[in-house]
Design brief:
The complex is a heterodimer of chains A (321) and B (422). Chain A has one domain: ABC transporter involved in vitamin B12 uptake, BtuC, CATH 1.10.3470. The longest helix of chain A has 29 residues. Chain A is mainly α and 321 residues long. Chain A has 13 helices and 4 strands. Chain B is mainly alpha-helical. Helix content of chain B is 72%, strand content 1%. Chain B is built from 17 helices and 2 strands. In chain B, strand 1 and strand 2 form a beta hairpin. In chain B, helix 12 packs parallel to helix 14. The longest helix of chain B is centred in the last third of the chain and has 34 residues. Chain B starts with 7 loop residues before the first helix and ends with a helix. Classes of the chains: A mainly alpha (321), B mainly alpha (422). Chains A and B meet through helix 4, helix 10 and helix 13 of A and helix 7, helix 12, helix 14 and helix 16 of B.
């Protein structure tokens, strides 16, 4: 039981970045733009989030307030950076995969250049304790209190809040319906007066906001408030794409997929603490590879009945058809 | 008129050809990338920016040997990415294949005891096999289960990186844990040097160029190459024509993997400038950057094997220049930024190029047709209905494939020329 509680406590802060970034990918792809640059967007958001933390950590602001301020900054940074993709993909009708790859390469180099020239290090190190030992009141509930309201981060609750908001926007608003139409059949959407270009811009912008926040939450929940140009976000942007595919481009399924992947990763990094795995004496690297191998297995099983948006990856041109 | 090489018509043929168009597109992307790099340098350290930037541009000339040494692996990765591009596959997994090839070469170099003159050759072949296996897997996933090769090869970048790091760290002969790097390779496993002083440049650059030419021949002169390009242009049409797309996908990815694997082998088997040492590998859980530089190389060379040779040398040149900017307080990462920006603009520079061309053309039109006389583009366009209609279709062509757009234009030119001759 203790092991399970330990795993869940550690899994949630890891699951949230995956969840948010996968939701971002969902908004982008359901509007018809493949966003493979999520890795870069995450790192860009994390970089600006950590910079904000670094700048205000010496003032006497409460740690959780600092987190909220930095979150807003990272959302803005992600939004601005994602405009590189929407400009290239929507306005210039460029190859979306190549554009995304360029975006992924640009950020680590920029962070390394900046950090090496200014701090003589490979990244940014902050010293704010975002960790919440016990949530007052709620943490006293037996079992559930221990699982969800002890030794955690504020990011977990914000993450689930964003999930609920995303699902509402996605399924219950006019905007969500129009967005989905643009990813399935943009010409039909255009014929009934929906501005496909604007919808795709908004889809990518939402993925930028969620990607930026997700990146900052990664640095808070996984890296203890630091960010490093060499390791970056360790492929979380790509894993989030796999989570999105596994979740069949639907918010609630994406949540379960994110929890599944986060569970695998947490398991991989805490094998030495679990007696059963510790006894088997398997090289830990095999466990570290597990999320990536699991992605492959999952993709093989889901590719046959894939619910991918029909028009994703194809630039929209009014003059065709 | 036809005999004169520099006649107006001939010049127009050249300037309108696919090769020329992608050449100017590449130049445009490079120029934008360098301008962006210069701006970053000005922001980072204004006082030294001019000297630093001139090092980026010209610094490589003082290290010609190193330029060619560092060009070899990215040339191989560029060929790998470009070859897959020809079939419409995006081989983002060149890094993993490169790492795998490097490991196989290292393994044979350390563990097999072979005669001096064939040891390095076997190592190179081992590298080829390692990369081939790692490219084969995404190919099989794509062909059999229709899993997008981009995601697969990214995942296999990570899996390959972790595997290689684990295998190396677990091998006492190969790994010196106190120095966190591999031991020195025996001299027999290192490739013959070209004898340039203070440089590791070796015969692999010639092997790489020979392979590029071989790929050109395969693409242009063989049935397989034709099928590959046909699948890249329109996979449904080529399937309808009876081409085995599954087999071709697997074969293409395997060849692409083998090319990257060779790149890894060439990088690690290079002779060291210090006697008694060798190139070493540090297992630090970082994805090899060579594969991503290969994407830039392939895009700049517009996936043409011969173009890729030049773009690899160019990228290597500015990388060498970038390391020299350290003299003025900059970091070599500046070049990674330039490369990323070049890739970004390469994604739509062909379109920008066309737009720029149209802009210039319309300017010329406004200045009056008298100066251009009979053969001005304006009159041709107006007089020839074929031109007008196909132009209209062109726009839709851009959608599917930016490359085909120019090809269509080229064909129109030929039609126009024929009708004129008649």
């Amino acid at each position: 039981m203790d092991t399970l509680i330990y795993l869940i406590q550690n899994m949630l802060p890891v699951a949230i970045p995956l969840l948010l970034v996968a939701l971002g990918g969902m908004f982008s792809e359901r509007s018809g733009v493949i966003n493979i640059g999520l890795e870069g967007i995450m790192l860009f958001g994390a970089f600006f989030g950590c910079m904000t933390v670094l700048l205000i950590q010496d003032s006497r602001i409460n740690a959780q307030i600092i987190l909220l301020i930095a979150m807003l900054v990272s959302a803005l940074a992600g939004l601005l950076y994602s405009m590189l993709l929407s400009f290239a993909a929507v306005n210039m009708k460029a190859d979306q995969t190549i554009t995304g790859t360029a975006m992924n390469m640009l950020v680590p180099a920029t962070i390394l250049l900046f950090a090496k020239m200014n701090y003589n290090s490979d990244g940014i190190t902050t010293s704010v304790a975002f960790y919440i030992q016990k949530v007052p009141g709620l943490s006293n509930i037996p079992i559930i209190g221990e699982m969800f309201f002890q030794k955690t981060y504020l990011t977990v609750y914000i993450g689930f809040l964003i999930l609920i908001i995303s699902a509402i926007v996605f399924y219950m608003t006019k905007f969500g319906l129009r967005l989905r139409a643009c990813g399935e059949h943009p010409h039909a959407a255009d014929s009934v007066g929906i501005n496909v270009y604007r919808m795709r811009h908004s889809g990518v912008a939402l993925s930028g906001i969620l990607g930026g926040i997700g990146g900052f939450f990664y640095s808070v929940g996984v890296m203890d408030g630091n960010i490093n140009g060499h390791t970056g976000v360790a492929g979380f942007g790509f894993l989030a794409l796999a989570v999105m595919i596994f979740g069949q481009w639907k918010p609630w399924k994406i949540m379960f997929a994110a929890l599944f992947f986060a569970f695998l990763r947490t398991l991989a990094y805490s094998t030495s603490l679990i007696p059963m795995f510790n006894k088997m004496d398997i090289n830990q690297t095999y466990f570290k590879m597990m999320p990536y191998v699991a992605t492959m297995v999952v993709l093989v099983f889901t590719s046959k009945k894939s619910r991918a948006p029909k028009a994703e990856g194809i630039p929209y041109d009014k003059s065709t058809r | 008129m036809q005999n004169n090489l520099f006649s107006h018509q001939n010049m127009k043929k050249i300037t309108k050809s696919k090769g020329f168009s992608s050449f100017t597109a590449a130049l445009l992307a490079i120029a934008l990338g360098l301008v962006f790099g210069f701006i970053v340098m000005i922001i980072a350290r204004p006082s030294n920016s001019i000297q630093g930037f001139s090092k980026v541009l010209f610094g490589g000339f003082s290290r010609i040997g190193d330029v060619f040494y560092f060009a070899t692996p990215i040339l191989m990765c560029g060929l790998s990415v470009g070859f897959a591009f020809k079939m419409g596959l995006f081989n983002i997994g060149a890094s993993g294949q490169y790492t795998m090839g490097m490991f196989f070469a290292l393994y044979v170099g350390f563990m097999w005891d072979l005669p001096d003159n064939i040891h390095w050759i076997v190592c190179v072949i081992a590298g080829l096999i390692g990369g081939l296996l790692w490219g084969l897997i995404p190919g099989i996933f794509k062909a059999i289960w229709n899993v997008n090769e981009v995601i697969t090869s990214i995942m296999f970048n990570y899996i390959g990186m972790y595997l290689v790091d684990m295998w190396i760290q677990g091998n006492g002969t190969m790994y010196i844990s106190s120095k966190t790097r591999t031991a020195y390779l025996p001299a027999s496993a290192q490739m013959p040097s070209l004898g340039v002083r203070n440089s590791s440049v070796n015969i692999s650059i010639f092997i790489a160029i020979a392979i590029a030419i071989l790929l050109y021949v395969i693409l242009e002169k063989t049935v397989f190459g034709y099928e590959l390009k046909a699948t890249g242009f329109n996979k449904f049409a080529s399937k309808y024509a009876g081409m085995n797309d599954k087999r071709n996908t697997i074969l293409t990815m395997a060849i692409a993997g083998a090319l990257s694997g060779l790149g890894g082998a060439f990088a690690i088997l290079a002779p060291s400038t210090i006697a008694g040492s060798s190139m070493t590998y540090e297992p630090i859980s970082v994805i090899a950057p060579a594969g991503f530089n290969g994407i830039a190389v392939a895009l700049l060379g517009s996936s043409h094997p011969i173009g890729i040779i030049f773009s690899a040398v160019f990228i290597s040149h500015i990388q060498r220049g970038g390391t020299l900017t350290a003299l003025y307080g900059y970091k070599p990462e500046i070049i990674d930024i330039v490369i990323a920006v070049i890739i970004y603009f390469s994604a739509f520079s062909l379109l920008m190029n066309t737009a720029l061309g149209n802009f210039v053309k319309s300017h010329r039109r406004k200045r009056g047709q008298n100066t251009d006389g009979q053969e001005s583009d304006f009159i041709e366009e107006k007089n020839n209905p074929i031109m007008e209609t196909t132009r209209g279709e062109n726009n839709s062509e851009i959608l599917e494939n930016t490359g085909s757009h120019v090809e269509v234009e080229h064909k129109i030119d030929e039609i126009v020329n024929h009708s004129e001759e008649a």
